[in-house]
Each structure stands twice: as structure tokens, then as C-alpha cells.
Amino acid sequence: MSKPVIITCAVTGSIHTPTMSPHLPVTPQDIARHAIDAAKAGAAIIHLHARDPQTGIPSADPELFREILSTIRKETHAVLNISTGGSSRMTLDQRLAAAHLLKPEMCSLNMGSMNFGLFPMIDRYTNWRHDWEPKFLEATRNIVFQNTFGDIESILRDLGEQQGVRFELECYDVGHIQTVAFYKKQGLLKGPIFLQFVLGVLGGIDPAPEQIMHMKTTADRLLGDDYHFSVLAAGRHQFPLGTMGVILGGNVRVGLEDNLMIERGKLAMSNADQVRKIRKVVEELGHRVATPDEVRTLLQLKGAESVAA
């Protein structure tokens, strides 16, 4: 029997803004509720960002993350994954503050600096709920999302070696996979490795089936069989390319961070809606979805009891 498929759900992120969907969770209570419902629908890993509860702007406040994590843990055993990416407008210290405080089982780790363009979304909306939204998006025209070799090394040492955190290694292009292989060879990154192929962000690799194949063959060549991969495709590409990833033997990420829609022209009412949709695809393909404890075994996680929240 093939290994079970891991569904990751990225609940709110720092890309979309409140004007874009009334269903985007903003407050700690709403983010936690979306996460709990997604876990109950079949997501084994919950990828978490925080937002200011009044304005919805992405926030690095560790106390917001503490509230979110503590609420989720009361109702589900899902693996909780704190973003170290935060937002391209945050400093590295801000991005890492919650992870240092709460010591989660997993964190995301972006594997290279890049242009990360959100500014094209400005043209889709006219009546903004908050003044910060168009300014936030426009700022990405002139900001480099910094993830230097030094940044990556400090995260691998401080969170990985010292706190036992495992990583969702976010690869926005094939060069990022080469960086993973470099740190694996150096011994700073140890298996089992969990790659997240990220397609469709302006500044990264484009969302095409050929690019998934390119990323997978690159990972096969550089990492052999000592890795697992998942596919994250932005916007309308989420379900088609996520399905392709499963067919190729990988895993899949969904959630309102990456895509606000459930189908063409229709907003998703919740993260759980997207999880249920991709779960049906996974099961129709003859697979079953992984449980949180299976993920802990597969990725050799330290266990929920080690989380400080």
C-alpha cells in the first residue's frame, strides 16, 4: 500500500487582505476555528500566520500566535507549523519571535531571497476596507524578500539543532532545492526532508505541470530518496497542480493563504471547504490521507508535548 498523503492547510497567510474575501480569518479566534475545522476535515499539518485582530494586517506578535496555538491544541492533535516567513515587510527577528517562544514541532523555512510581487492584485479591487491594504501590496514592487544563506543557517541552528524543530522547506524555484541539498551535505539539514514546491508567486517559478516535473527531477537528482515533497500552487492552479503532485507520489497544501476560491468564480467559505475538496481527490485516486501521528512518525517530529503553547 502506498504511503498516506499529507494534507497541509495554510489558514490565513500574509498575501491576501480582508477586502479580498470576507471569509479570510483575521482574529486569533477565527484563525483557530478555521484551523480546527480544517484539521477535522483531514489536514494533518496546519501552517499558521497571525494578523492584527483590528485591521487584519499581518502580525508577528508572539502572543497572538500563543493564543492561536493554545486554542487549536484544545480541540485537535494536528501538527502545528509556525511560519518563519511572516511577511516580506518584517525583519528576521520579528519573523522568528513566535517560533523561538513557542517551540513548535514544525516551522516553514524559505530557501532563498527573492522578489515576491503582490502588487498586481491592486488592480482587481477599488473599495478597500483598510487604508493599509493597497500600500502593503504596492510596497512589494520594491522589496526583496530576504532569506540569505546566513538567515537560513541561523534558523537551522537555532530552531532546528537547538529546539528540535523540523521544517517545511519552501522552494520557490529549482535553485532553492540546490540550497537544500547544500545544507544537507553540510550536515546542517538532516532528513527526513520535507520540501514544499511553491508555484505561481510572481518572482518564483511559474505554475505549470512541466515545472513540477522539473522540480521533482531536480530533487530526485540532488536528494535521492531521502525526502518527501508537497505541492503548493497559487490561486486557480491550487487544485489541478496539487492533484498532479499527489499523482506523482507527493503531498499537497491548500488553504486561504494560497487561494481564496473553491471553484471558478466562487469564494471558499472556509479552509475546511478546500481540505474536503482535495481530500475527495486524494481518496478518488486510491489513497488515504495521513493522520497527524503518521506525519509525526514519517517526518520524525518531536511531538506535541514539546510545544510551549
UniProtKB/TrEMBL annotation:
InterPro entries: Aldolase_TIM (IPR013785), BKACE (IPR008567)
Keywords, alphabetical: Metal-binding, Transferase, Zinc
Cofactor requirement: Zn(2+)
Keyword flag Zinc: yes
Keyword Glycosyltransferase found: no
Upper lineage: Bacteria, Pseudomonadati, Pseudomonadota, Alphaproteobacteria, Hyphomicrobiales
Record protein name field: 3-keto-5-aminohexanoate cleavage protein
Highest taxon of the lineage: Bacteria
Gene3D superfamilies per UniProt: Aldolase class I
